[in-house]
C-alpha cells in the first residue's frame, strides 16, 4: 500500500503515528493524494483512492488524511516524500483541504504535530490549547503523544 510506504519514514522518525497498511486500507476514503505526473501539483492533486494511483503507475508524492467532525475538519498523516518536498505539494494539499472544509460549512481545520509547528504556523495555523479542541478530536487523539494542536480559522483567510 503506497500510503503506508510514503508514511513509514515519518512514522519511524516519530513525526507521524505508526499505522499499518490495513489501517490505511480501512481509511482510504479519507485521504487526499498528490501524485507526481505533472509539474502543476494543484492539477495533479486528485481525490482518489491510493489503489487507483498505483494502478495509473504514477508516483505518490504526498498525502493527507481528512476527518470531518462537527464544525471543523481534522487533517492527519500529512506527509510529502523527501524527493518532492519544497515544491508546494503540502501547500496544495492544505488548499484542497481548506476548500473541502469551507464547502462543507466547516470554519476551521485542526492538525496535531509533535514536530511540525513551524510548517503549520507558516501556513496560517495558530497553536491552541488542546483542551479547547472539539470533544471528537480529543477522543481521536492518542493519549501520551504530547502533540501540539494547531488551528486554521478559514474565516480569517
Automatic annotation (TrEMBL):
Residue span, N-acetyltransferase domain: 1-155
Claim: Cytoplasm is one of the keywords in the record: no
Pfam families the record matches: Acetyltransf_7
CDD domains: NAT_SF (cd04301)
Keyword Transcription: no
A GO molecular-function descriptor: acyltransferase activity, transferring groups other than amino-acyl groups
UniProt keyword terms in alphabetical order: Transferase
Protein name per Swiss-Prot or TrEMBL: GNAT family N-acetyltransferase
Amino acid at each position: 500500500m503506497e500510503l503506508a510506504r510514503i508514511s513509514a519514514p515519518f512514522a519511524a522518525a516519530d513525526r507521524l503515528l505508526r499505522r499499518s497498511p490495513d489501517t490505511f486500507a480501512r481509511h482510504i476514503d479519507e485521504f487526499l493524494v498528490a501524485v507526481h505526473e505533472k509539474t502543476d501539483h494543484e492539477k495533479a492533486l486528485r481525490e482518489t483512492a491510493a489503489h487507483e494511483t498505483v494502478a495509473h503507475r504514477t508516483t505518490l508524492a504526498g498525502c493527507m488524511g481528512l476527518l470531518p467532525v462537527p464544525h471543523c475538519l481534522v487533517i492527519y498523516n500529512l506527509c510529502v516524500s523527501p524527493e518532492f518536498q519544497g515544491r508546494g505539494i503540502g501547500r496544495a494539499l492544505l488548499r484542497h483541504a481548506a476548500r473541502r472544509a469551507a464547502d462543507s460549512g466547516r470554519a476551521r481545520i485542526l492538525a496535531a504535530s509533535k514536530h511540525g509547528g513551524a510548517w503549520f504556523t507558516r501556513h496560517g495555523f495558530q497553536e491552541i490549547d488542546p483542551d479547547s479542541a472539539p470533544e471528537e478530536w480529543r477522543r481521536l487523539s492518542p493519549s501520551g503523544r504530547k502533540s501540539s494542536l494547531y488551528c486554521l480559522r478559514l474565516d480569517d483567510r
